[in-house]
Design brief:
By secondary structure, the chain is mostly helical. The chain is built from 22 helices and 18 strands. One of its GO terms (biological process) is ERAD pathway.
Length: 653
Amino acid sequence: MPMGGLLPLFSSPGGGGLGGGLGGGGGRKGSGPAAFRLTEKFVLLLVFSAFITLCFGAIFFLPDSSKLLSGVLFHSSPALQPPADHKPGPGARAEDAADGRARHREEGAPGDPAAALEDNLASIRENHERALREAKETLQKLPEEIQRDILLEKEKVARDQLRDRAVFRGLPRVDFLPPIGAISREPADPSIREKREKIKEMMKHAWNNYKRYAWGLNELKPISKEGHSSSLFGSIKGATIVDALDTLFIMQMKDEFEEAKEWVKQNLDFNVKAEVSVFEVNIRFVGGLLSAYYLSGEEIFRKKAVELGLKLLPAFHTPTGIPWALLNMKSGIGRNWPWASGGSSILAEFGTLHLEFIHLSHLSGNPVFAEKVTNIRTVLNNLEKPQGLYPNYLNPSSGQWGQYHVSVGGLGDSFYEYLLKSWLMSGKKDLEAKKMYFEAVQAIETHMIRKSSTGLTYIAEWKGGLLEHKMGHLTCFAGGMFALGADDAPPGMTQHYLQLGAEIARTCHESYNRTFVKLGPEAFRFDGGVEAIATRQNEKYYILRPEVVETYMYMWRLTHDPKYRKWAWEAVEALENHCRVNGGYSGLRDVYLSRESYDDVQQSFFLAETLKYLYLIFSDDDLLPLEHWIFNTEAHLLPVLCSDGKESEGNEQ
């Protein structure tokens, strides 16, 4: 329909716009041919709106289309169908459908396929009918009713925000306990001491250039020598400052820590009208502030952490309590990534809140934070898992899984990490977390962990019963996770999980060693005669990620095998040779090229994670001992809580 034909519908003689056109008699014309033509246009617009609404409902409210088609048209079990392609988020990639069809079938669906099909079809019919009813009800409403519903929804969100904050009447007094192992002596071995000092110098280089060229902004562009801000943080500023606080503290960079604290006190502002990633803001800002408080005892960090936690609570205002991925900090309105399986929330995002929110309740005296993340567990435990696996997508409205895509890398990774660390952080009292973790790991090992022809152990991605023999850099954290959980494994399995951690560490080291720059790609593959090598151009980049050295750190602490220090030092040399520039450190666009192709971003997690883990590898074990501290997924430090909810007793100043 030509745009000119629609314009009269959205204006009135008085220029009132849409509101005037829907208003009372003053804006309406008398009867006659012109009015008849306008009525025809209005009818056509209603029909067009109905069509769009039905399409919109099919996209966002119906179950995943791939499972619908496979179950209805082909009468096959949805567990055996590859998922539909989806638009990837940052760092992910849309899959080639032909590749998916060519992959070997690895697993069959458990149980009776006919019964599973019948259950799935019944669920599809129920969701389909509900979506159609909702669309029909919406179409029958007058524009004034729709506007009223929108206003009522906004008022409900505002009431929910007030309710959550009503419990909070100010911060209670907390007796700060001196942190255990926050500062350690220098290593006795001169060569180790020299290497540790070199890593501290790298931190100074990264920090000083951020301060010189991007102070107060989120991140640094070290080639352009200017600030860089990701949309993940909306208009919140200072991501690098908050992310680096605990690294500055443990490296005893006292002046830098004080100037960072002063910036937080004077400039860190969460009263912004912007949409943020709940996950990223939680792990970097909430985690960084909590860690800084537990190390220093400075009250400003506790105050800011709780203030930000309250700002994030509206994200949980969904029918199931599964939080939205994105939240407008001003309005409290949330939504999910549009590419995420029909408006689903992502496992690694809503599953990576537990550690921080338990500590927010501990430090604020407000139970609402713990209640929100405990409810997430309840929802998950009430769902049936395909072959015991947790799909990456969960619809926060229906409470049903989206696409059957399972990954221990991007979209899934830190959910499993937080199950294990919730058990450890609770002083080994959170038996539910322990049970969920080991059941998930058993399913992952059965259905997703494989060996290459030359004996490299890797974790593939599971897509509706098919395996994609690809492993991401993000997945490399799992070596450290398996080793960290080994002591609490089922009887007779401790050595097995330590060995599994060592095998994953070796595979990830190979992914580094097989590149020109000796730093690993974003993803590497095990198919077509290729092992631990990236074969697609959009998987060859390195953005200063920490997951490989994270696993080295845990393996060093738990085994003291000298090869992990050797491999860590190789990473230090590669960073210095290929990522260091005059203005800081930059990621690389292709790790297989002999010439550097910089991406011109110094990620905040390079200071929070990569350099921290490297520093700990070349420190004695009494610096941040693992029995007293838990690292969140951004390497921020949270103390182990005793059974009474208090952190472990401090024993040194």
